[in-house]
Design a protein that fits this description.
The protein is mainly α. It contains 22 helices and no strands. The relative contact order is 0.11.
Length: 516
Amino acid sequence: MLPHATPRATVALGCVSGVLLAVSAYLAGALPGGDPGPGLRLGGFGAVPGSFSLGLVCWLAGMAGWTAAWWRLGRAGDLITGRPARPGAASWWNGSAWRLPAIGAAWAAPLLVAPPLGSRDAYAYACQGWLWRAGLDPYAMGVADGGCPWTAAVPELWWHTPTPYGPVAVLLAGTVTALGGLLGALAGLRLLTLAAVALLTLALPPVARACGVPAPAAYWLALLTPLTAVHALSALHNDALVAALTVTALSLSLTARRQDHDDLARTVAPLPGSGVSSPQFAQDRPWMGGAAAWWGAVGAGVVGAGAVGVKVTAVVVVPFVVILLGRRWWAGVVAGVAAFAGVSVVSGLGLGWVSALRGTGELVQWSSPPTAVGMAAGYVLRLVGQGEWVGAAVAVGRALGLVALAAVGVWGLVHAWRRRGDAGAVVRACGWVMAATALLGPVFYPWYALAPLAVLAAAETDPRRRRWLAVGAVVCAFLTLPNGLGVPVLTKAVGAFAVTAALIVAAVRSRPRATA
């Protein structure tokens, strides 16, 4: 039961918004029978049925209401900045962090009994799992090539494209297809997503405490956003599992790290019954918590390998986990390599996912900033009669993005190593490198933000950056329509120039100002 001082109107607004989103899922969502508004892309709103238009209205109202309720909740509890609450500012939750997930669960409950929103990828996961259960290699063929019975529900992108996900993702998807039929597979994927969110709920507080962020603030930014509602709980993206496993690996690494500090404290602990400190007292009892630290290191390696096994981009987290583990780094590395190798062997998939990654950058959309810059340059070249260089412009933009990503990665590792004594600094560097990996790649989809947002929700302490993260989460949530059609597809030129202009403005404003 919510306390009397809870902003009940705000909670009620979130609940109503969840219902509206569920209604929009049935009218205009990613339905298993096919796209309810197939004419929207080419014919506009006049080419879609009235039910789809009504679904769009419910979508916009639900998203706007959810965003408003979420933001008001953050302001009421002083959760936006991530600072420790001022006296009386967070009286509605009375210091009980669990109230935030409880409110989020109430808001999201209608989505759990509705079709997916914002993406049809869940059907692709189901078909890719079906291929594996049928004894076929999802890294060698698309779902249509393998004869998946649910191909009609899958986006055409994946009909003849091998899956880019790791063996853990394929193994889990194959397991849930045993529940029977497409609806059974979707139910299984939803259970996996709920398990991932539950794991994330448990793993966030230890990381937040180590980084100096109140647990409620971490919950607010990681779990209650409209991005999480649409692309984790509704659309069932694998990135929710990556987020949970990544934060859990960091949490286990911090457990091993804390044990090192405890061991050091014991070396000067007083002997029982005396005031004399004795290093030998601790050395005579090496298992006083030491085993827990080693198991924490092993667990961090295994869970980290699981994240990489779902999505290979999670590999950028590994060096930061190793840094956090300190002298136990080798245990984590050995456990992680062994776990990944074991899954690859058990699944029979081996390293086929490596070759399947080659087709992941074929789409050209302005949601990726480097691609947006290349697109804008291409449009300019086309205007001056040099249309044959459009493809080259996009390629150059993407290459520059990868160079920038490499620079951010090197900075993050150097920064984390130099400040390895500060757990918060290491985790923050990890989160920003993850964000750069998502944004500076050739392709960016809004759900790519789930994992870096979860890490930074628990680690970032700068109030201004946290506000920008919150704004970014909202923007990402609105980048797709309920049927899965991306806004970047509908606004190619406008979006490319808008993103390019925003990057230029950000670069100019970030320049150091000359001082007199």
